[in-house]
Q: What sequence folds into this?
């Protein structure tokens, strides 16, 4: 890596890695503990991970295309972060709760949330949402870092309901909250870490450090290694290669199990890279160079899984064809569904903002109704 002109911020910090970018096993003995945690991962599991990552990437590509053709107003791309999401979410159990931000498409997919429903928000047909109780997945949170507090509070509730450290694997539960490196600059994250530590809340803070908070690099966000952020609050921390699905799974499995058993919170920094834009309204070429993109393209998480399957002798073209066919059908269904959604009345933006009637909301609704009447009468714009 010495010849590479660009290096990630704080790269020298110890980072758990079990599979190298070329698909070979990392034999570094310092990671034997994590390697032993995933001895049960077989070829079938690797193929499941590949399928999930391939579908996640196809969803990203299709949703981006839908936005570019005017079918979506906006989309938050997640290309390059597949291993971080798929590896971690497969370490959860049905009774665990997930609190996503707005880029966790793969997490939602594995937990059974229909991804076409996530696109309601990006098309503007409603405020976004799904059956949270069915999937144990909270709604997407657009307000940066606010959900770290929500997740911590929910974890404290699970704890007080006696659903932690019972010894019953079908009962014991934990919470995992996903956020990016930019969210660590918000006070909410620090408050959540402190509450979680003091209360030994069963919550795992999963930070996908994709190197950029929109256009702000890590070097402008923090000086010391980001993974050490939790240590100041007394929260165990671990840094992992976020493009190594096996390593991500190992560290998350341990953290979730510790939380369920009453061991309290963990802070995980998954070092990865956002190959696409922050959102489809962003142009990353204005703030990052080709050297950086080249560095990460050589560490692509999906290609690493393919390489690992080949190294294991578990890759075959029939399997690849089956996954590709499934992805094609998934994309076609997504296109048809999104185009069928139509356009809601503009006044729908006032629906379901509050659980009960609210005076300000009603005042704004009435004003907007009058504005629309004026437009219809030709009086608007004056």
A:
């Amino acid at each position: 890596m010495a010849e590479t002109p660009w290096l990630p911020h704080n790269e020298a910090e110890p980072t758990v890695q079990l599979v190298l970018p070329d698909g070979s096993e990392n034999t570094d003995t310092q990671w034997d503990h994590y390697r032993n945690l995933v001895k049960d991962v077989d070829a079938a599991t690797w193929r499941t991970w590949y399928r999930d990552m391939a579908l996640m990437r196809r969803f990203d590509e299709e949703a981006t295309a839908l936005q570019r053709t005017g079918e979506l107003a906006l989309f938050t791309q997640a290309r390059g972060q597949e291993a971080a999401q798929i590896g971690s979410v497969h370490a959860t159990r049905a009774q665990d709760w997930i609190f996503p931000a707005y880029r966790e498409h793969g997490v939602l997919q594995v937990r059974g949330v229909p991804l076409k429903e996530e696109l309601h928000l990006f098309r503007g047909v409603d405020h976004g949402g799904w059956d949270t109780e069915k999937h144990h997945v909270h709604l997407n949170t657009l307000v940066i870092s606010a959900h770290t507090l929500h997740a911590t509070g929910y974890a404290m509730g699970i704890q007080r309901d006696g659903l932690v450290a019972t010894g019953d694997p079908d009962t014991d539960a934990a919470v995992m909250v996903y956020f990016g490196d930019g969210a660590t600059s918000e006070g909410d994250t620090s408050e959540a870490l402190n509450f979680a530590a003091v209360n030994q809340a069963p919550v795992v803070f999963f930070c996908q450090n994709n190197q950029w908070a929109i256009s702000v690099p890590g070097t402008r966000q923090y000086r010391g290694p980001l993974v050490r952020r939790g240590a100041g609050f007394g929260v165990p921390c671990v840094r992992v290669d976020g493009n190594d699905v096996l390593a991500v799974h190992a560290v998350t499995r341990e953290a979730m199990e510790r939380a369920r058993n009453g061991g309290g919170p963990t802070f995980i920094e998954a070092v990865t890279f956002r190959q696409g834009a922050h959102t489809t309204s962003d142009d990353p070429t204005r703030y990052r160079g080709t050297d950086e993109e080249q560095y990460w393209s050589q560490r692509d998480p999906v290609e690493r899984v393919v390489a690992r399957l080949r190294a294991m002798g578990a890759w075959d073209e029939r399997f690849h064809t089956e996954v590709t066919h499934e992805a094609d059908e998934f994309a076609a269904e997504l296109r048809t569904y999104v185009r069928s959604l139509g356009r809601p009345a503009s006044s729908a933006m006032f629906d379901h903002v509050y659980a009960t009637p609210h005076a300000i909301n009603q005042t704004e609704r009435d004003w907007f109704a009058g504005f629309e009447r004026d437009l219809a009468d030709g009086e608007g714009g004056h």
Q: What stands out?
A: The chain is about 45% helix and 10% strand. The chain has two domains: 29-340, 346-376.
